[in-house]
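Appendix B, Record 12. Input sequence as logged:
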Amino acid sequence: MDDDTLIELRGVNKSYSLESRPLRRLWQQLRGQVDRGRQHHALWDVDLRVRRGELVGVIGRNGAGKSTLLQVICGVLEPTRGTRRVRGRIAALLELGAGFNPELTGRENVRLNGPLLGMSSTQIEQRMDEIIEFAGIGEFIDQPVRSYSSGMFVRLAFSMATSVEPDILVIDEALSVGDGMFAHKSFERIMALKDRGATILFCSHSLFQIESLCSRAIWIHDGRVRFDGLSHQAVVEYSEWQSREGLATPEGAPGAQRFDSAAATIESVTLADAPPEATYRSGADTLRVQVRFRSDPGIACPTLGIGLFTVDGRVLVSAGNWLDGADLRRDAAGRVCATLSFPQLPLLKGRYTVSVYVLCDRAINLLASAEHVLAIEVVQSDVRQGVVTLPHEWRTGNDE
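Logged structural output:
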């Protein structure tokens, strides 16, 4: 393990007994003899090396072994077989506040859990005011945690977990927590750790976030590493596998997935000036998607992305206001209305869906989404095949 390597796994397996009888399972563990035919392999022969300053995304289906991998790296779980070597201080955003005692005050919980993050008693006291200020819970810091709202609880846990200036930051699913203002603060703190050179492992179902944030990504499937390389290549490999396996959004399911947060809420997505039954003529009609959303006025104005998808979930085209240099106009109440137009719609015949994404001002952190919220039909008068028409020209004879 060289000086630049912070995480190294070699031949790591993590298995669980499927024995349903508790006494029998205990007896097997005491004797160190497990029926290998009755085991679940959450990880299987995983080799991984992560260097200082790398941003590594972790992708895969639910149950693929992503969280188990992160827990092994953090030392929450011990591998059944293989070696794990980790150097440096780890901050893990896995289950925030899992070690808090509800009967103790917030301040007492910080003092109790600080040593688990590698802080001495002196360091805890030196950082106490900063932790309290960042969490924004004021005088409640000296009240029992059981009296906290869920937002206050999570804010304090996040503030403490990220106050240690870690060498390695592990994030499982969520990049931000709490209300709109705190979500922005938490995201900015994570980005500051990134800018200071912390190694970051980020597990997410959002392939957009993985590709935007990470230079490298690992695809885990059935406990094995199926791909380890550049993030955009990992996204392509994983997306193509999903399409082959029929695991994308099922046909005829517009509006299947919606997400709002305290930072932003999508109020409506409509087709402006739509033809009857949302049936568009290829190359003739203009598709106009109008989005109204509301965001917390206390944070920077979010960005807006819109995508067109086939009915099996494959993305055809996407557009973002930040990519096209179009600034969004937001009123004092945080409301935004924006319309994206596709003149002379270049899609060929078929059925398509529209998805909308509200992202942070850096266009990385997802604040709200409405996936496959609208469905459209495209018709054409000729027999061209495919999904899109591209500008082209013919030359014949000796004109070359």
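Residues 248 and 313 are 5 Å apart (CA to CA).
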